[in-house]
Amino acid sequence: MPILVMKFGGTSVATLDRIRRAAKRVGVEVAKGYDVIVIVSAMSGKTNELVGWVGETSPLYDAREYDAVVSSGENVTAGLMALTLQEMDVPARSWQGWQVPLRTNSAHGSARIDEIPPENILRKFGEGMRVAVVAGFQGVSPEGRITTLGRGGSDTTAVAFAAAFDAERCDIYTDVDGVYTTDPRICDKARKLDRIAFEEMLELASLGAKVLQTRSVELAMRYKVRLRVLSSFEEQSDEAGTLVCAEEDIVESNVVAGVAYSRDEAKMTLISVADRPGIAAAIFGPLADAGVNVDMIVQNISEDGRTDMTFSCPVDQVPRAEKAMEDAKAGGEINYHDLVADTGVCKVSVVGIGMRSHAGVAAQMFQALKNENINIKVITTSEIKISVLIDRRYMELAVQALHDSFGLDKAA
Ligand code: ADP
Ligand code: ASP
Ligand code: MG
């Protein structure tokens, strides 16, 4: 029988009632003749609570135990979903990551999936089971320990299952009815897209649009998974939601497809470092070793052989970045006058494959920000995106202004 993957995010399984509603959706697909793999998240808020408990217990926690704790939210919803389906007379069974097994590497907290052998679940389908309910977000390392795939990782579980089982489609059920031109929670003019290209979705996700985890989009692109985002709160037709698909499958599109933001960024400036060969390596090597995810980098013009070096990173990594720099200074690898952390910034980006062939997008972006009197602190660009670092208090305003400026409320 054809296989369908259906993933339900945290808000879609937040209460027993919502689990029942989701199970009904699954029942509809089973009645159509599909064998279904359901991927569930933890109930909304649960993972945050578990992460908080770990931090309170042990600030510099052992990542293996972090995973043991934070993966548990999904175990509860997987069992409850299987029970709910059984109550509806749908033959269902729950699976934790290790039981499948979903094999990952040992990078606890943000593990990568190595393989999902389909035999165990396929055998159960062969014996009459119609729904395999799999706990999202979790796997098992080569050492036999539980791992997790990073926040939002159930999306990646879903796409990986769709690829491993050659599913007809991977449906991501969430609390919005598709992918929008920007987060509908901060811009009422945001417009739902019927289709979006993999490349654009990949950029939007990695620049902060949390509707899909970045790795899930990477996987879908690589394995050509038919990936759809839709609402678990509305009655659905086969055409509902947003299809994430190849560029060739999109007929008309705007130059800019969407606007993304990342709220909690920090801008770090090393004042007066020696401008000599190897200085960047001496700074960014220790930062990488300390696990700091450096994003933007700017080196200023040097005077008298000294220069300022600016980089951005997630705000919660500032203490780690500061420690890495202080240690490198104490060790004599680098010398700087001061390290200034600006922890009140955010990143706003515009994304669109149309930028490859259209000049003037950056100029239009900067003009729109100027019209709102928003100062730009750092700029970076790539072929299909432009990002700026600005004061966090202007984030919503900037997103709305850019959305208006590029006419994203109107279809192409
Ligand atoms: P789930 O718990 O179902 O995985 P998430 O909270 O992870 O849901 O992702 C859905 C949220 O993503 C939406 O509620 C919305 O606020 C946010 N979001 C950000 N950018 C976008 C966008 N461009 N389109 C749709 N949703 C977006
Ligand atoms: N429950 C996990 C999280 O909140 C994984 C997910 O929902 O995708 O990050
Ligand atoms: Mg999510």
From TrEMBL:
This is Aspartokinase. GO terms for cellular component: cytosol. The keyword Lyase does not apply. The gene is lysC. GO terms for biological process: homoserine biosynthetic process; lysine biosynthetic process via diaminopimelate; threonine biosynthetic process. PROSITE patterns: ACT, ASPARTOKINASE. Belongs to the aspartokinase family. Pathway: Amino-acid biosynthesis; L-threonine biosynthesis; L-threonine from L-aspartate: step 1/5; Amino-acid biosynthesis; L-lysine biosynthesis via DAP pathway; (S)-tetrahydrodipicolinate from L-aspartate: step 1/4; Amino-acid biosynthesis; L-methionine biosynthesis via de novo pathway; L-homoserine from L-aspartate: step 1/3.
